[in-house]
Amino acid sequence: MTDIDSAAVPLARVVRGDLVESVHRGHLVVLAPDGCTRLALGDPEAVIWARSSLKPLQAVGMLDAGLDVDGALLALVCASHNAEPGHLAIVDAILASSRVTAGQLQNTPDWPLDLESAAQRRADGGGPASLTQNCSGKHAGMLATCVVAGWPTDDYLAVDHPLQVALRDAVAELTGVPVEHVTVDGCGAPLFSTTLVGLARSFAELVGSSSGPRARVARAMARHPWHVAGTGREATRFMEAVPGLIAKDGADGVYAAGLPDGGALAFKIADGSSRPRPAVLAAALAVAGYDVGDLGATPVLGHGQPVGEVLPTFGPGAV
């Protein structure tokens, strides 16, 4: 294993005019349905914080512990949502199903990611709230799991709480990698380490399951892509373009996806940038045999007009 920088290789180049302006380095792995490696760039064994890409794995842990939601509600438990009205209605439904309230959410208050929803909240005199933070679906699921399991809810974010112990175990089991590092995620929940290939392997486990909590999570995400992210978000757009695909972004340049054929992919942009993610995701899907058209296109602007593009270093259109 290496640190996140030492073995990183170029995954995307930013072209402005006729020059390469900058380079995004990182690590990437694409797995075939049989688990063999289709493509490895950088170090697939790099230990990472998978950030919100872990949410589907945590959702499996919640279902294993007794949470009983499906469809759009389960998709919201896996989501980094925009906090559009439809998202907030589902979070409220998860909370109401367990007779807990938004006031019991302990995730970090924030504005909606959706600009229109944030503007409307300001106009209505509101401010940052736990409900409108993008992880509120996960936290609502955590509270609901505690209620059904008979666990206390006031300290559900404590690393030694039975819920968090169960979620840590779920991450280790699905990835096949022991959790060796624990810290706090942006939303306040415990965050567990894994490896890049472990993350990819876990998404293969989800899409490759035909029944049980793993299949329920994959089915919810694939059937409700808008609830996993929201209007205009890349995860939603890619899942809508490829039926059966499940894709989950994570902060600081992380992405994971489970493919309809049972394969999977994961990558980490070493500098933490989100800019190259669509181009890298589209190229990785192409390596696996999935053409998403121009979804990976990321123009570079000059005076408001395209003067270049973010291009992958591998697959079709590589530079």
Automatic annotation (TrEMBL):
Protein name (Swiss-Prot/TrEMBL): Asparaginase
Pfam families: Asparaginase_II
Lineage of producing organism: Bacteria, Bacillati, Actinomycetota, Actinomycetes, Micrococcales
Domain of life, per lineage: Bacteria
